[in-house]
Amino acid sequence: MGTLTSALATAVTDEYIHLQQPIHELYLRADAQCMHIFDLDAGDRIQFDLPEQQSIDLLIFNTEQQLRPELLQALQAESLLVANAARATHAQLNQASTSGQRLKQQLAQHAIQPDWLEQALTLHSPGKSIFHASAAIQVIVFNTGLDMNVQQQYCIDEVPVTLFKAQPVHYYLPQPLAKPVQEILIPRASARTYSVKAGQWIQIIDLSGKQCSDFLAFDAQALAQGQELGLDAMATRTILGHATPAPGLHSKFFASDLQALAEVVQDTVGRHDMFLSACSPKFYNDSGYFGHISCTDNFNQVLQPFGIQSRNAWPAINLFYNTFVEPCGAISMAEPWSRPGDYVLLHAHRDLLCASSACPDDIDPSNGWVPTDILVRIYDQDQHFPRSQHYRIDPEELPRMTQASGFFPRIQALTSKISEYHGYWIANEYDGWGAKAEYLACRERVAMIDLSALRKFEITGPDAEAFMQYALTRNIRRLAVGEIAYSASCLETGGMVDDGTIFRMGENCFRWICGDEYSGTWLKQLAQQHGYKVSIRNSSQHIHNIAVQGPHSRALLQQLIWTPEHQPSVEKLAWFHFTLGKLGGTDGIPVMVSRTGYTGELGFEVWCHPSHAEQLWDAVWQEGQQYEIAPLGFDALDLLRIEAGLIFAQHEFSAETNPYEAGIGFTVPMKTKEEDFIGKQAMKNQAPESRHKLMGLVLEGNEAVQHGDPVYVGRFPVGVVTSAANSPLLQQQIALCRLAPQYALTDTAVEVGQLDGLKKRLKAKVVDLPFYDPQRLRVKS
């Protein structure tokens, strides 16, 4: 937990503090192969939940920056801290890999001398270990260790950390992203101005959670010449093509001269207001609170010395303000989603005069009823912070920020059309190609796509087979080593948690490849609940992968991948099997190659450690030139998978959809799998005749339909569109849809309803899936 500087700490307001929800526990974590800093006050307790066969190294400093390990005391006899010279940390530092370089950068950033590590203590005890701080201390945690190559299954996993406060606190301040050049505290119900140079970074932090902060920015050079050139909502919406109000933040904010003032780089909340003004005297007067202080009044006061004209209501970026547009167009609001320590990071494009407020609104939920403080940190222009958005797996945890895969430097050089997908940056399409050309390359030649956003989990231990037999729908016992199965994982209701592929790496060793990071959390909870003796580790940061797909994919890869005698060659690799080998020969990088894909074409996936990703990309790209290889973006992939009738999370399936209704009933061997598995009874209780069924639609005309559009027969809906695309193959609009069983028949005439389903109808015909290669001969060739 970060601490305010002494000057700022004394300035934190305590008015109305008793109305706030005090923070007794903080749910933190130590990410894999990273260093983390936790500040403890006297009497605080810190808990580490260590995975089996994993350790962490600790350095304990007092407030005078002296090493004082005796100030952290174990509350359990088995939670022993032993002198171990930080062997795991030194091992990572000595690696010539990205993880080693990243750790060295962290040490340098926090001025930690490498020789201090000789005095580190090591915690080996698996499970929960609790320690007590006898004085105010800083605990530096090294969750470190060697990289895992793709042919191994032991990896460093994240360590959950819980901080129990002896005295409840009312704010949480994250550690600085770098050394700040300014820190500006904005006490509740006030506003402050601050100057920012072009290229500097502005971090606006909600200290206590649920506190709105309006942001203004003006071109400093224009102000010096007597011109007010500030944030302009109309210019921003016009340039970005986002005129309809929606909660969130624009990627950039422009002035009326149509040039950018600031850019949003990181956001840990995702819920903000961009279409209302800062609160004004009129707002409070109309509500009967005459004379109530407002953000507009506060801005007018602090901007007056700069010659900026006062306003009756200031247009502003309303950070953390939770407003939304109802279907009827009315604007509503609720308590903010921001939590203690949440922030927005902006990058200044010009020299700016900025103003930030801590909103005084205490008459409605806009600040959680209790106005609190805001902190602004400014970082130097020499720093670099990656663009990222937030996501959370569990409601109480710290936000996780968007990652770049090991292949991303190569992708970024080929396209500017980048978006966030499941916590990773991915390419939508590539400059000079486009989705249609990329699609055709995959269907006719060969294409490759970065699929590192898939999550990977290593499941090992004496009960691994029995556990996966219970957790997944497929009959795992039938899998041979080297074989893969596509499976669903379900809830007790039969609804799907996820879909994915299960790799049998050994007799009691499996690798689960899926789409949702929560799958790992769910598997761990399931194993603990039922007492299975298994280790479940998240290897997603250790294994990144590209898919090489298309008719020439085998010819391309068999020239690149060397396999030992006891492993099948790429040429002989069977469908839904994998092989282990090396890139280019016996001295090449370790890789795993699987005959899998998501396109309906002959194809493979190649898996490697992120440190080797660029080398793998370059080799495939260079060798693929003779086959006119193309990079493949997610727009083209979506088109390919819809034609192939392949399903996608939150489109064809969700926690309310079982595998039969999602179109993958073949993954549920209800008759041949004798053992119980999660969701079996619920699906068994469902009458097959009553199930909705996933079918295809071919539409008349070229008008686009969308996910969620209802499907009608006559006046009433009988199904819903789950995915849709304009198919180059059929030269028609096609869609996947879930239909009531009475209408899930080939050649049934239906209509897709738009504009409430009654004002606009698009005629369609029901067809079987897949649209492309019905016998799946190409993918099996």
Automatic annotation (TrEMBL):
The keyword Transferase applies. It comes from the Bacteria. Keywords: Aminotransferase, Transferase. Residues 410-671 form the GCVT N-terminal domain. Residues 693-773 form the Aminomethyltransferase C-terminal domain. SUPFAM superfamilies: Aminomethyltransferase beta-barrel domain (SSF101790), Folate-binding domain (SSF103025). Residues 186-353 form the DUF1989 domain. The keyword Transferase applies. GO terms for molecular function: transaminase activity. This is DUF1989 domain-containing protein. It comes from Acinetobacter terrae.
